Amino acid sequence: MIKIGKVSYLNTMPLFYRWEGSEVSFIEGSPSELVDLLRKGEIQAGIVSSIEYLMNGKDYLLVPNVCIASKERACSVLLFSKKPIEALESIYLTSESLTSKELALYVINHIYGGRPKIEKDKNRAEAIMLIGDKALKENLYRTWPYVYDLGEEWFKHHKLPFVFALFLVRKDAPQWLCSYIAEQCERSKAYFFENLYKGNISVEGFSQEFLLEYFTSCMKYDLDEEAITSLKLFNEFLINRAV
Asked: Is residue 202 packed enough to be buried (19+ CB in 10 Å), middle (13-18) or exposed (0-12)?
């Protein structure tokens, strides 16, 4: 049985809404947890932080035309702050996504010129960065005076979507797996959006109006030319940061 890593956030739902056949089983985890499993060979493929492909692309095949990206907003990759971002002295960054952590540092350091201390205890930080469902739920409370959408900050600066995750396949996996995943994801997206527009998608804690807005206005799932250009820009930042 082929094992495939599946992030258990709301934003992955269109990619995994309906798969046919019994060739694979799913292992759930955060993007950073799945990267670790993929590196160890404990899963053969997975939707993982895009930074893993930028850093170690030689080890993987990239499933074509599949990604998890933001459009003009990400809506679920958010920085919650007690003060303006340029004035921050301390920040907590979730460990759930390597890509989102690096994007947060890009926004803070390069767009706003800040240099806050990275806190491991979020209770001691002036700002916290959360992703996925935790970010969506935290935003519902409306208790933070400043909330920054990191996908939106990237878009305002570059006028491009931001690619948070890619579907990667280990090179030692069966040769058919890459095309199989691409076909399953394409079919799943079609089923999902057909049902979304009909009002047939329900998720506890979220209204149908929210789901329609989130999946159509915030999220992007096609790895097109704009998304690839954005990945290259982000990679340049990572290279310069490492120098």
From this structure: exposed
Backbone phi, then psi, for 222, in 5-degree steps? -100, 125
The Cα–Cα gap between 93 and 98 comes to: 10
CB burial of residue 62 (10 Å; 0-12, 13-18, 19+): middle
pTM: 0.93
Rounded CA separation 24/20 (Å): 10
Q: Which residues contact 223 (CB under 8 A, 6 or more apart)?
A: 64, 65, 66, 67, 69, 163, 166
The token duo for 239 is 């290279």
Instruction: Point out which residues pair with 91 in neighbouring strands.
Output: 118, 127
Is the distance from CB of 165 to CB of 119 less than 8 angstroms?
A: no
Q: How far apart are alpha carbons 234 and 120 in whole angstroms? A: 25
Q: How far is CA 141 from CA 75, 77, 80, 144, in A?
A: 15, 16, 11, 8
Q: How far is CA 33 from the centre of its chain?
A: 13
The tokens for 210 are 């929210």
| Secondary-structure percent of the chain, ordered helix, strand, coil, rounded to 5 | 50, 25, 25
8 A C-beta contact, residue 148 and residue 29:
no
The amino acid occupying position 101 is K
Q: Write out pLDDT tens, residues 189-223.
A: 999 999 999 999 999 889 999 999 999 999 999 99
All residues at 6 or more sequence positions from 176 whose CB lies less than 8 Å from its CB, including other chains: none
